[in-house]
Amino acid sequence: MAFSLPPIAALHSPLLDQSLAVIRDYLPSPAPVLGMVDRKIPMPFKQLLAEAPLNRLFAQAIEEGEFDDFEGRTLRLEVNGGHPGVTLGFWAGRLRLVDGPGEATIRGSLAAFKTLAERKQDPDQLFFQRRLVIEGDTELGLALKNLLDSLDWNLSFRALL
User: Fold this and answer.
1) Per DSSP, what are the bridge partners of residue 133?
2) What keywords is this UniProt entry annotated with (predicted)?
3) Contact 95, 68 (CB under 8 A)
4) Are 104 and 76 in contact (CB under 8 A)?
5) How far apart are CA 160 and CA 147, in angstroms?
6) Nearest to 109 by CA among 25, 53, 39
7) Structural domain contains residue 27
8) Which of 22, 48, 102, 134 is a plausible cystine mate for 75, CB 3.0–4.6 Å?
């Protein structure tokens, strides 16, 4: 006897959406666990996993020279509370993961970064509401925020593969 899953469309219902919202509100943040895992993974392995998808995601913008102003610069994206973060740089026409602090840091909750990545809310609102904060070289952070806001990109699992 074969077991089949319901179609994806059937999985989107108001009851399921409400249940997931309750779970998100009451489950503890995964950030501390992610931080422990992050500290145990060597940087070369992180680079291997993250750099190719990032460069595929922004390939057209990189090819068109949109990232050229960021050559040799570093920016850190960090989850509130010093939990996992990533420092990105741009060298020789490629986005790269680097170890250490960035010239600017954009810090916020996982939910704020998810909202930003999915483009569900205007990035300026996230900053004005203090859900995302820029520290350090704010001009660099704002330039990157404006670049990402101007690009036509789609963050999906399929796009990253």
Assistant:
1) 107
2) Ubiquinone biosynthesis
3) no
4) yes
5) 19
6) 25
7) no
8) 102
Provide the β-strand partners of residue 79.
108
Phi (first) and psi of residue 17, to 5 degrees? -60, -45
Q: What is the pLDDT of residues 41-78, one digit of tens each?
A: 888 888 888 899 989 988 998 999 999 999 999 999 88
109, part of any domain: yes
Q: What gap in Å lies between CA 137 and CA 78, rounded to an integer? A: 15
What are 35-44's pLDDT values in tens digits? 677 778 888 8
160 pLDDT exceeds 70? Answer: no
The number of domains in the chain is: 1
Task: List the beta strands (DSSP E) in the chain.
Answer: 74-79, 85-91, 94-98, 104-108, 132-136
Write the CB contacts of 50 (distance below 8 Å, at least 6 apart in sequence): 86, 97
Which has more pLDDT, 81 or 141? 141
Domain harbouring 52, CATH code: 3.30.1050.10
Q: Which residue has the tokens 């319901």?
A: 6
> Which tokens go with 74?
């570093």
Q: How many residues does the chain have?
A: 161
Give the structural domain span for 144: 42-160
* DSSP reduced 3-state for 16: helix
